[in-house]
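Record 1 of the preview.
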Amino acid sequence: MSPMKNTILSFLFLFLFSFSLNASVAILSDLDDTIKITEAGGNPTDIIGDDVYTGMPEFFEGAKEYASDLYILSASPSFMRGKIEGTLSKRRINYRGLILRKNIFKDKFEYKVREIRRIMDSTSEDFVFIGDDLGKDPEVYAEIKRLYPARVLGSYIHVVNGRPFPTASNVPYFTSFDLALREHMSYRIDAAWIERIAQRLLGERDLSMIFPTKAQCPTEATVWEWQTRTIFQREAQELTSRFIRFCQARRSDIIPN
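->
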């Protein structure tokens, strides 16, 4: 292959697979129970597994159109870096930084606040935060919102155990469709990606990849009612109907007759 063709292919690769170099928005995401299915699965082997929530790779792919960088901040120990990098590579989730905890005895709240402040102080980008309610993410993101009120564009918390959030600045979500639709309503992610993620979820045969065994699984449609007031009403209704059937069936399996 000629040098010219190599140059063209390299340019196309960077264009298609890199986060936008012209954007002034970055995303910072937790890993376990946000991207990767871990404790919510109820199986100790999930800690070293590589299952990810359905639709999350597509969400990050779509986010490349408006976000310049993706940082993944996890409280997982640094000795798991190789395993985590393999999981992210397998799912084609590209990132600028993967920050892991060197001292596992360090308080998770202090660790995450310190690392986020270090990142934000090194750049002028505004941030969208994604986390879950199993750890300290709601408290961490609320603190960062207090410290950098003008630079936090969104703070999304994956509902796993359903505990209360410290502030209303944290927006709950159950699925990658919820997350993507919220970002579309904030005029960031393109509508085409909402449709793509919806089809990915509708095509998922194993719904435990969306609602793991120990994760909250809504049995009432009210949590998704807001979606029916968007242009994606049809997709929302299809997804809600499917999720409710699954969650009700799961509940009937665990409640004694």
